[in-house]
Amino acid sequence: MGPIEEKVDLESDEEIPFSSSSIRRKVHMFGFETASMSAHADVVNTWVFKRIRMSPLRSIYIVLIKAKINVLLPFGPLAILLHYVTQKHGWVFFLSLLGITPLAERLGYATEQLAFYTGPIVGGLLNATFGNATEMIISIYALKSGMIRVVQQSLLGSILSNMLLVLGCAFFTGGIVHHRKVQVFNKAIALVNSGLLLMAVMGIMFPAVLHFTRSEIHFGKSELSLSRFSSCIMLVAYGSYLFFQLKSQHDLYNPVDEVYSFSSI
């Protein structure tokens, strides 16, 4: 509930008990009091403009200072300083971990705020895309440093956590919070998401099988070619998934009404 409460702080404290759409409906239904309705519309426009023209200093305060987790931000510059003045890599890693934690949380907060204005589908897509930006940056720098094993284990951990940890926690928490309701979900969406995760698992498994069975025709080259081919297939599959989610079957991603409860059965 934190991001929602902070969103309320970002908005003006004034409330308008009517909207411009309701004003237009009233004018269309009743052919009188047009001047009065026009005045109300001007008030609404002024209120909206006031919200848009919110103080940048207050926005910076909410994003960088108000959240309690931001007390960890100074550990990032401290880790950079220790990296150049000392050789204590353990402390550099620990302080970097503390410093990057609020950055990842603030990135997720920013995408959640965008979701309030773009809708749940686009907002969820932004959250899923930019929520992994930290992991992507770390993987890129690890590849530049030649730490391929670290990147492989990071990808495998992400896949397993999404397939088991996140899904299991969602079921478990949902059962506790909504213990008197039957949790429902869309089977088509579940099949698509499970298929993408299964494709990611196979993209990692097949080159590994080729490596350990020593069955490739050209040692090293076949494994690399299969890995690159799998990555291209996964990129095409992800692009198809975006088209499926945003254009083709976007109605499937509307929230499902949970109308069943144990008390009514």
Overview of the structural elements:
It comes from Ricinus communis. Among the domains are: about 65-145, no CATH class; about 150-180, no CATH class; about 185-250. About 75% of the residues lie in helices and about 0% in strands. The chain is built from eleven helices and no strands. Helix 9 (about 150-175) runs antiparallel to helix 10 (about 185-215). The chain is globular and about 60 Å long. Mean pLDDT is about 70; it is low at about 1-50 and about 260-265.
Query: Biggest β-sheet: count, sense, barrel?
Result: none
Structural shape:
globular
Q: What separation lies between the terminal Cα atoms?
A: 31 Å
What is the CA-based Rg, rounded?
25 Å
Give the topology string: H per helix, E per strand: HHHHHHHHHHH
Low-confidence stretches: 1-50, 258-265
What helical percentage do the residues reach?
over 70%
User: So how many helices?
Assistant: 11
Going by helix content, strand content and strand pairing, the class is mainly alpha
GO molecular function: calcium:proton antiporter activity
Domain Sodium/calcium exchanger membrane region: 91-246
Transmembrane segments: 60-85, 91-109, 121-143, 155-177, 189-213, 225-244
InterPro entries: CaH_exchang, NaCa_Exmemb, NCX_ion-bd_dom_sf
